[in-house]
Design brief:
- Belongs to the class-II aminoacyl-tRNA synthetase family.
- Its EC number is 6.1.1.3.
- Homodimer.
- It is an enzyme of class 6 (ligase).
- Helices cover 36% and strands 28% of the residues.
- It is α+β, with helices and mostly antiparallel strands.
- The chain folds into four domains: 64 residues, Roll (Ubiquitin-like (UB roll)); 169 residues, Threonyl-tRNA Synthetase, Chain A, domain 2 (2-Layer Sandwich), CATH 3.30.980.10; 274 residues, BirA Bifunctional Protein, domain 2 (2-Layer Sandwich); 92 residues, Rossmann fold, CATH 3.40.50.
- The strands form nine sheets. An eight-stranded mixed beta sheet has the order 18-22-23-30-27-26-24-25, sandwiched between helices. Strands 2-1-7-4-5 form a five-stranded mixed beta sheet.
- Helix 3 crosses helix 4, helix 5 runs antiparallel to helix 6 and helix 8 crosses helix 16.
- It binds one RNA strand through strand 14, strand 15, helix 8, strand 23 and strand 27.
Length: 640
RNA sequence: GCCGAUGUGGCUCAGGGGUAGAGCAGCGCACUCGUAAUGCGCAGGCCGGGGGUUCGAAUCCCCCCAUCGGCUCCA
């Protein structure tokens, strides 16, 4: 390239600048502004993330990314992961490196070590990282041929890197990054030098299987995060602490909603207040389903082994099931409701005129989840699915799927939380031919596209009998949990020889949908608790109002108010304890009761109540009847 | 199930080889009070369970169990 050649650089603001060909991106940043040079972490050249040290040879659109940009942030964290790996290389000679990506809010790196890391090691590693950062080592990029790279990492004993290279396409370009004495296979890009990294915090260690398969060796994963400013790190750590305060397990105990006890790991207890919440949800659910032409059934929890053999659960789901013996016979506790529901369908002959049949069941299922997987109400070993099975003509499939999607959206809307949708395809352990799976998967995809819903594909994650659309909700720490699901099934109707009588008087095979909206009452209540931080909307609140007499003198009027509210179907409590008003309010606030009704001399005299709303505070006095009307309206509209 | 951590009264936590402490909650008494903690007193724990070391174990060691954070799995 001729030194005298000029190239044109187009910046995001549309401005065009000329530079000599071969100029380093960093020098362009410096030319634009010293501040940009200081803050830029990486460049985007024609949409391609690129190290700042690399030269620019021809005309290009260039953008400089800082920590404020999502991609800049990822590069920052990824570079931090490399620094952590370098620290581990020094502290734990012989350690092997697997992968170390940036993730939401941080990064991790997986190591193969002779001794597992302990929490104490984190501090030591952090110290070493600080030294590396202080040394301000440049991140240098090198291109390698495949044989050279294999030789480099092979000689270094880096088996995982060798495996990674072997799995790359033969003609793929290989890049290697080096800072100081640490060399890693990496696509890059990276920040210019380790000195760019400021506030680093290693958060925890965890075992993680190589390539995510439990068949592989368990590696040691260290999670951490990093920020360009200490204050940002502190704020992040504070946010995590904040989030823990909304943890449904903590709130469940504090608000006396539910609990999990040592006597029943994974088997939740619903306490009186949690039952109110649950019953309200069920009531709402029944209303919405009745409106949409669903009937409701209930099937037994224990059914014979032969049924589970026929359904395929025996072959595909046995390790998750509980078994029992009755007299001489083998039985299983149901892990799913479908076989029971199918028996109901088969109990009589069906005409094509009846279809679609939408049969719902709040079914209690038991599944043996791995002990380490249990998580509050989010993952338990017995739970109530708000299940339904839809039996339909092949021609009705698309409309029925869309109908379920609409129901999902309508119901989630009432709670106002965000969700995302995934489409899961055929798993390894599956029943049914590829053609059937293909057809079913296309039907789901088609319905999603018709409704214009954004979704992500989750390969191999379908149920063993069919592909599915999943609705994922977010908990307070950002973890997502599958709740609603729509599973299209051509397999069960076949195995169970389901049929309906068609127009032609002949038997035909219906198609089935398995679906849930809440997913499970338990998980949904967990999500709901965290979403509202325990401050449930009035229609769900276990106690909707608490009457607080100022002194014992006002107990009679307080009782009158309580009786009146209670007579109108409002869930109300009275606090006649011999305590000061501040104390009683504090406690009612802590219980997140939507309304506190303070009554003293003035209120007793005027037949009013002094209303305090848990979020808005003191609303002043109003006639009791007005308050009742207001609250009843709030309840019936399910406002939040 | 796997890796790491944790387990002390209802809750939050201190103690760390010599036989258990605080605050809050609970109970009793006094105060009769106007929008987030009135004061005093009382009661409450075989320190997750089982083994071992020791004259002596909540404390040290081993094995379980449960929980927390991940991995895997899933509603």
């Amino acid at each position: 390239m001729d030194e005298n050649n000029k190239i044109k650089v187009t910046l995001p603001d549309g401005g065009v600048r000329e530079y000599p060909a071969g100029i380093a991106l960093m020098d362009i940043a410096k030319d634009i502004s010293p501040r940009l040079a200081r803050e830029a972490l990486v460049a985007k050249v024609n949409g391609q993330l690129t190290d700042l040290a690399r030269p620019l040879e021809r005309d290009a659109a260039v953008a400089f990314l800082t920590f404020e940009d999502e991609e800049g942030k990822q590069v920052y964290r990824h570079s931090t992961a490399h620094v952590m790996a370098q620290a581990c290389q020094k502290l734990f000679p012989g350690v092997k490196f697997a992968i170390g990506p940036a993730i939401a809010d941080g990064f991790y790196y997986d190591f193969d070590t002779t001794e597992p890391f302990t929490t104490d090691d984190l501090g030591v590693i952090e110290k070493e990282m600080e030294a590396i950062i202080k040394a301000d080592l440049p991140f240098e990029r090198f291109e390698y041929t495949r044989p050279d790279a294999l030789d480099l990492f092979g000689k270094a004993g880096q088996d995982y890197k060798v495996e990674l290279i072997e799995d790359l396409p033969v003609d793929a370009p290989l890049s290697v990054y080096r800072q100081g004495d640490f060399t890693d296979l990496c696509m890059g890009p990276h920040v210019p030098s380790t000195g760019r990294l400021k506030s680093v915090k290693l958060l925890n260690v965890a075992g993680a299987y190589w390539r995510g398969s439990e068949k592989n060796k368990m590696l040691q994963r260290i999670y951490g995060t990093s920020f360009p400013k200490k204050s940002m790190l502190d704020e992040y750590l504070f946010r995590i602490e904040e989030a823990k305060r909304r943890d449904h397990r903590k709130l469940g105990a504090e608000l006396e909603l539910f609990s999990i006890q040592d006597e029943g790991p994974g088997f939740p207890f619903f306490h009186p207040k949690g039952m109110i919440l649950r019953n309200e949800l069920e009531k709402f659910w029944r209303e919405e389903h009745a409106k949409r032409g669903y009937s409701e059934i209930r099937t037994p929890i224990i059914l014979s082994r032969s049924l589970w053999e026929r359904s395929g659960h025996w072959d595909h789901y046995r390790e998750n099931m509980y078994f029992t013996k009755i007299d001489e016979g083998d039985y299983a506790v149901k892990p799913m409701n479908c076989p029971g529901g199918i028996i109901v369908y088969k109990s009589k002959l069906h005409s094509y005129r009846e279809l679609p049949i939408r049969m719902a069941e709040l079914g209690l299922v038991h599944r043996h989840e791995l002990s380490g997987a249990l998580h509050g109400m989010m993952r338990v070993r017995c739970f109530t699915q708000d299940d339904a099975h839809i039996y339909m003509l092949p021609s009705q499939v698309k409309d029925e799927i869309i109908g379920v999607i609409n129901l999902d959206e309508d119901i989630y809307k009432v709670f106002g939380f965000p969700y995302h949708v995934e489409l899961s395809t055929k798993p390894e352990k599956a029943m049914g031919s590829d053609e059937i799976w293909e057809m079913a998967t296309n039907a789901l995809r088609d319905a999603l596209e018709t409704r214009g819903i954004d979704y992500k594909v989750n390969e191999g994650d379908g149920a063993f009998y069919g592909p599915k659309i999943d609705f994922h909700l977010r908990d307070t720490l950002g973890r997502t949990w599958q709740c609603g699901t729509i599973q299209l099934d051509f397999v069960m109707p076949e195995i169970f020889d389901l049929n309906y009588v068609g127009e032609d008087g002949q038997k035909h095979r219906p198609v089935m949908i398995h679906r849930t909206i809440f997913g499970s009452l338990e998980r949904f209540i967990g999500i709901l608790t965290e979403h509202f931080a325990g401050a449930f909307p009035a229609w769900l609140a276990p106690v909707q109002a608490r009457v607080i007499p100022i002194t014992g003198r006002h107990a009679a009027y307080a009782q009158e108010v309580t009786d009146s509210l209670s007579g109108k179907g409002i869930r109300v409590e009275i606090d006649t304890r011999n305590e000061k008003i501040n104390y009683k309010i504090r406690e009612a606030q802590a219980q997140k009761i939507p309304y506190m009704l303070v009554v003293g001399d003035k209120e007793a005299e005027n037949k009013t109540v002094a209303v305090r709303q848990r979020a808005k505070g003191d609303l002043g006095a109003m006639p009791l009847a007005d308050f009742e009307a207001m609250l009843l309206e709030e309840i019936s509209t399910k406002s939040y």
